[in-house]
Amino acid sequence: MVYERKRGWASLDLRQLWAYRELLYFLTWRDILVRYKQAVLGVAWAVLQPLLTMVVFTVVFNRVLGVKSPTSSVPYEVFSFAGLLPWQFFAGALSRSGVSLVSNANLLTKVYFPRLVIPISAVLAGLVDFALSFLVLAGLMGAYRVAPTWNAFFIPLFVLLAFAIALGVSLWLCSLNVLYRDVQYVIPFLVQLWMFVSPVIYPLSSVTNEKLRVLFTLNPMTGVVDGFRWALLGQEPPGISLWVSLGVTVLVLWGGLFYFKRMERVFADVV
Amino acid sequence: MSEAAIRTMGLGKMYHIGGEQERYRTLRDTLVRAAKRPIERIRHPGAATHRSETLWALRDVDLEVRHGEVLGIIGRNGAGKSTLLKVLSGITEPTEGRVEMRGRTSSLLEIGTGFHSELTGRENIYLNGSILGMKKAEIDSRFDEIVEFAEMKRFLDTPVKRYSSGMYVRLAFAVAAHLQTEILIVDEVLAVGDIAFQKKCLGTMGNAAASGKTVLLVSHNMAAIQGLCSTVLLLDRGTVHSKGPTNEVVSTYLSLLGSRAAHDLASREDRQGSGQLRFVSVEFRSADDHTPLGEVRSGDDVEIVVGYECTEDLHNVWASIDLLSDSGEALCLLRNDLAGVEWSTLPRRGRLCCRVNKLPLGPGHYQLDLHCMANYTVVDYVQRAASLSVEAGDFFGTGRLPNQSNGPLLVDHQWTLG
Fold first, then answer.
1. What pLDDT, on the 0 to 100 scale, is given for residue B48?
2. Are the beta carbons of B357 and B349 closer than 8 angstroms?
3. Secondary structure of B83-96 in the HEC alphabet?
4. pLDDT of residue B105
């Protein structure tokens, strides 16, 4: 093992990350355990949160404002819940992961391990919530008699894509938050705004302005949310927006990884 | 030639301090500053844009540790001991030079790193073990030994937040004691816990050394260093002062401390007052045996010895010591009349000894102002006459101390239910 000052863009050193996979497992396990132990409602919270959000969305946007699901066979309740599923995973990952380095400052200053383990475990911990609300969605689809399509086999791919986007954005946010402590106050705001420009509440087809639509497509979450609805509910396929999502995700993730590795050297001194 | 376990070449670590010394910035400040910079340039062309100062916490450290060597690292506060351990552990990157480590390394800079209070003892053993670098299979196979060492089988499924501080430390050390790495880097973990526990820790460290592990140990406890280490490295202001056989280097260190313990004030000209009395020295001594203290610890009985000289006989003397935080906030005042001692006449030269029982200061740096009045006029006033650096000590007798961010003062207190 050699330690010396690394110059320029440090190599990603993913092999070392692999060597620390057990630590990644334990930190993820810790995040999950602690979350369900601390919350009074525990597991129920993971179910209630998306369910209540869906109810509010349905009342406000569907019943009051008249936003409709694009296919008549799928009620708005199921439509919005299917969009909320990947969205809440993404939003939760950003909020936890963005502050993860600062909240694990005691580890950073006392023990050596590849720092990437921390934001990755924070994103991974959200998968349990995701799985729970997936079960709720299955129940909801049963109740509204919406049959899943064979495309459902693509769901893991969309989860992977959502994971990659969440990690990519989180890497930027958590590194920046170590250097600039006010970033953590920006995150909730960012998440909120981001939801309104992603087709969670409304279908992308309702964006009729061509120029606006191009902008919406650039949002990588558009491809994920649309993809989920396509795979599960058989609604319109994501088409071009999926490929754009993929491209943007790759850019954000690579940039995030390199920025993180570059800043990693100073984390222990600054945090 | 046998391969060294640890080798460093020209190792240096620089920190930025002063100027904009906040540990972290805010994005807002940075943006504002970036916007202002062009304006500043126009207004003051040629002015340095960087106002921050640098500090070399470590410089030119060349070190070689053989396999199986138990090296003690000593030095005063701020000598660079902890920085050296952090660089050797890979926690922080050296600014210059190079470190080569041969063998699996684990560092124990703090006991119970990563413990989570909501989790049970069992869960924390796994979490802490993996943070320290153990594989799950290793923890599985040593689990029973760890539990036995910690003597807490009954509480294994109790959340750690319900543990007493003693239990917490025992569990944390038990995990650490079962690390199976070739190189072990340890920082002052022996300073926690009660005496019996410290003995147990020392025993474990001794075993590690005897079993051929390479151990680096930072401690202020000279007895522990002398008992465990074959060689000692003395750091002073970031550089290697000396390295050699334990007893030799320890005595070098103690004499180095002695010479620095006294602050010479005779030549200070930045003073106020009539000059009928001049403070000439300040020194911190042990209140028990009156020997100079190189190191002052929280909870120590300390004697502050102030040497003075007078030009004439002085009457109704009020001598006072103002204790300030490093940033200059007043913390408390020590004055002879407050303690019920009055001197109607002061000898022409001598020493004023002020005894402080159980020093109520947390670890950190402090400043002392000396002030003297005679017949209601100021005769001498020296600001920042001495700096005092306090090390962690067992003030409460529990082995625990609050964080520095909770404030500098320690108050002896009891809790009861009633």
1. 47
2. no
3. HHHHHHHCCCCCCE
4. 85
Which sign, positive or negative, has the C-alpha torsion A158, A159, A164, A165?
positive
Residues of A in contact with B27 (CB under 8 A): 176, 180, 182-183, 186
Backbone angles phi, psi at A139, to 5 degrees: -60, -40
The verdict on B110 and B213 lying in the same domain is yes
Chain B residues near residue A183 by CB distance under 8 angstroms: 27
Q: Domain ranges in chain A?
A: 20-270
Per-10-residue mean pLDDT of chain B, 418 residues long, equals 80 72 62 70 54 79 90 85 90 89 85 85 92 90 90 88 84 84 80 64 76 85 80 91 91 73 76 90 87 82 92 91 86 92 88 93 88 91 86 83 84 90
Task: Say yes or no for a CB contact (<8 Å) between B109 and A110.
Answer: yes
Q: In chain A, which residues have pLDDT < 50?
A: none
Q: Does A102 touch chain B (CB under 8 A)?
A: no
DSSP class per residue in A167-217: HHHHHHHHHHHHHBTTHHHHHHHHHHHHHHTTTTSS-GGG---HHHHHHHH
Out of B227, B258, B289, a domain closes at B258
pLDDT at B21: 41
Q: What is the pLDDT of residues A82-117, one digit of tens each?
A: 999 999 999 999 999 999 999 998 888 888 888 999
Whether B271 and B205 share a structural domain: no
Which residue in B97, B123, B130 is closest to A23 by CB distance? B130
CA B209 to chain centre: 25
Q: Please check whether residue A270 is in contact with residue A115, taking contact to mean a CB–CB distance below 8 angstroms.
A: no
The 3-state DSSP class for residue A235 equals coil
The whole-number pLDDT of residue B19 equals 44
Residue of A nearest to B5 (CA): A1
Shared domain for B247 and B324, answered yes or no, is: no
Q: Is the dihedral of CA A87, A89, A90, A92 positive or negative?
A: positive
Q: The sheet that has B214-218: what strands, in order across it?
A: B105-108, B183-187, B214-218, B70-74, B231-236, B239-245
pLDDT at B49: 47
Which amino acid is residue B87, in one-letter code? Answer: V
Query: B304 - beta bridge partners?
Result: B284, B354
Q: Which among A163, A122, A140 has a CA at the least distance from the CA of A47? A: A140
Alpha carbon of A268: minimum distance to chain B alpha carbons (Å): 6
CATH code of the domain in which B74 resides: 3.40.50.300
d(CA B346, CA B279): 13
Does the residue B190 lie in any domain? yes
Report d(CA A176, CA B381) in Å as an integer.
48
Contacts of B22 (CB under 8 A, 6+ apart): none
In which element (H, E) is residue A90 found? Answer: helix A76-98
Q: Smallest Cβ distance to B95: which of A5, A110, A183?
A: A5
| Nearest chain A residue (CA) to B26 | A180
Contact B114, B160 (CB under 8 A): no
Q: Assess contact for A20 and A113: CB atoms under 8 A.
A: yes
**Of B258, B281, B297, which residue sits at a domain end?**
B258
Strands of A8-52 (E only): list them.
none
CATH of the domain at B366: 2.70.50.60
Minimal Cα–Cα distance from B391 to chain A, Å? 19
B132 to A4: CB separation less than 8 angstroms, yes or no: no
R_g of chain A, CA atoms, integer Å? 20
